[in-house]
Amino acid sequence: MTLIDPSSEPVVGFLKANGFAPELQSLRLEGSHRRYFRCHKTSNNASAVLCIENPYIPENHDFLSIQQQLNQASIPVPEILALDAQHGLMLQSDGGSRDLQTWMDSDSTATDEAIESHYLQLVDTILLMQSLPVKPPVSTRSFDKEKLHWEMEFLYERLEKVQESRGINVVPSFELKMFLLEMCEALSTYDNQCFVHRDFHSRNVMLHNGNVTIIDFQDARFGNRYYDLASLLFDPYVNLTPALRKKCVDHYFDKAGLEKGRGTLYLQGLQRILKALGSYLYLSLELNKTSYLECVEKALNQLEVCLHLGRFPDSVFLFILDCKKKLLPALK
Question: Which of 7, 68, 202, 209 is the most buried (most CB within 10 A)?
Fold first, then answer.
């Protein structure tokens, strides 16, 4: 696939037609094939974000329909300013230059009180998304047993590749694989399935002047109500205090009117982190995005958090221990 050059005529022409200068600032890439750039108006220097998606296939493009649904529900998402479907170009409103993780790591305004305020607001956002009617394209794809278990098998394949290339064996035991299979079945059949963002973590929350903007929602699915909460509270990119995590969990259960379900939340956290671990290994070792190597240890640390909160078999503990003793040294 030939990527469109950001300085090519179609891009420059699209920007100029919408009143933007052709100079672009590349933004941080996550695991997506989309590329993002910040651009500025020629008249007043106001900024916007240019997304280049190549190839752009309208019938497979879910960002627009999901953006419209979220926007109508007053969920803070980017506005669509202009679109050139032929070349896969989209101008979006700018949610800011810092994501939640960057702000927490480097900004003096990221006090404990400010962080808590943002996280409680994000828990409320999850509850608001879960109240939405589930319709296409979200309703056409779900976190069923097959999808959840495919994510586990994706991790197994990555670990097998590490075994071949680094000469270490950290492939999960038969006992752990059987437990994870049962886990996926339990999570997929849990009552109260709903709208799931699918990647609701600190790098997909932008901050600007104290306001949040939620991004990267185009792969939303129909699934377990705890998936997004687990993604937010067991996020390897940040290190939440146990007190803040508990406050967010209590806030969610109180607002949702739930008395039970924390065990399912921790189970979903386990599945989500294992999925993330497979993604980090794939991105760093197979796509050569080496910045994700540091996330492997962070994911293992979050697995330990889940282990202490949930009731999991010894095979989970032994897997984490194995990875810390063998996998981490082999990746350095």
Answer: 202
Give the tokens for residue 195.
């709208």
DSSP one-letter code for 142: B
Angle between helix 262-281 and 242-256 (nearest 10): 120
User: Average per-residue pLDDT in the chain?
Assistant: 94
DSSP character string of 15-42 = HHHTTB-S--EEPPP-S-S-EEEEEEBT
Provide the 10 A C-beta neighbour count for residue 255.
Answer: 13
pLDDT in tens, 81-92: 999 988 889 999
**Homologous superfamily of 99-331 in CATH?**
Aminoglycoside phosphotransferase (APH), C-terminal lobe (3.90.1200.10)
CATH architecture assigned to 9-94: 2-Layer Sandwich (3.30)
Judge contact between 275 and 149, C-beta under 8 A.
Answer: no
Helical H runs in the chain? 9-17, 63-72, 100-106, 112-130, 145-166, 174-188, 227-233, 242-256, 262-281, 293-309, 314-322, 328-331
Give the number of other CB atoms < 10 A from CB of residue 192: 11
Dihedral angle over CA of 254, 257, 262, 265, nearest 10:
-100
pTM of the model: 0.93
Cβ within 8 Å of residue 88, ≥6 positions away:
4, 52, 53, 54, 55, 56
